Amino acid sequence: MSTTETLFTRTDPALGTFSIRPLDPFSDAELLHGWVTHPKAAFWMMQDATLTEVEREYVRITAHEHHQAFLGFHEGRPAFLMESYDPAHLELVGLYDARPGDVGMHFLVAPTDTPLSGFTRAVITTVMAALFADPATERVVVEPDVRNTAVHALNAAVGFVVEGPVTKPEKEALLSFCTRARFEAATALTTGVSI
Q: Which of 131, 134, 136, 140 is nearest to 161 (CA)?
């Protein structure tokens, strides 16, 4: 699969075109380094990472059988990072009863000096629509830091329901789930087809 290949595209009625492609850990590392070490990315837990460490982490992720990373674009410009993973094998092993069709998700919006109203919600909607575009995805699972109240509100806005806190090695997390039906009801989107 080419890292220049667009995997998913969604047009937001207010903000325009969002698209997602596979991440290239080498050519995208410098861009990602600026994002993951930015003060607004504190919950990403890479604040002190060097460029080499960021590159190494994304080489590891893109080579992993159960973990993928993607670069998201808004109107053709890099705007967000998306990761998906199999929670039966990573992140949440032993912390909940994983079901077939569960997909774990992380996303990070690029820092900006000119924020757009509704942008982060449009990003998470795009990420969720991309995950549910795969008919095998039954439920999206997230485990953000319990202190990350901003992302809890975003998750709720796209249909996530809180299961409760779980203790991970690196953080106390808020385990939450979103089914396809809940996402579609929350966003009034049809997710089965790329737009």
A: 140
